[in-house]
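Per-record layout

source: Rouxiella aceris
name: Excinuclease cho
length: 282
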Amino acid sequence: MPNENTSLPYQYPEHLRYTLETLPACCGVYIFYGEDQTFPLYIGKSINIRSRVLAHFRTPAEAKLLRMTSRIDCVETVGEIGALLLESQMIKNQRPLFNKRLRVTRKLCSLRVSESSTRIVFSNETDFSCAEDLFGLFKTRYAAIEQIRDIADQQRLCYGALGLEKLSSNRPCFRYSLGRCTGVCCGMESLSEHQQRLKNALDAMRIRSWPYPGRIAIEEHSASHSEFHVLKNWLYLGTVKTLAAAKALQMSTAHFDRDSYKILCQHVFKQKGLAITLLDGE
């Protein structure tokens, strides 16, 4: 949420006070609408919608958003996983004015590291959901290059071997003379050893391949009912009420989704006891 530099004193949004009486104290997604009720101003999620919206009301830095808001709506979910996935999907589809993160990024970059080379690959050319030896998810080529430079400086890797600068034949790189390269450029280290050190440094950023043969349904439940979140190749397809409806839900688009990937890795695969059903067989 952007801060607003304004000389106007902050005023509690009295015109929205009634909204708190209608918002539930449960998990879900909330939507701020302006005078034009077609497109939202802001979309957020919380495990307690009412409490989170009240926090917006009490934040002077969000005065501009609150003055522009004429109505606040919400969509209840069974749990936090559903709220995270729905929030991400709604922001991508509706592009609210005040949301800067979770915007759709159709083309991502990653680093493909083999025993002999390091390349920047793009999601519109490579299927990130099943590719091997990919490290990091970057929105721009520049960000990927900066990551390589940082690791090269930390691990004394060779800019030439990484493709960041040209090497003169039979001569070590300039960084070797400064003690900043261990010498793969002049035979002091093998290329495979150099690349393995790079992989080790990048290991925490390794992209996981989709671990299932097809679609899955993640069951999330409360005391009264359940929801099934359907995904395939890290792409969120939707949430339905029954397993039969989950089996009928098919993929309409095919692109790697960075946010769904992070949600599953951080909030699903680290949890124990979640029921995951394979929808496309073994």
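summary: The mean pLDDT is 89. The longest strand covers residues 40-46.
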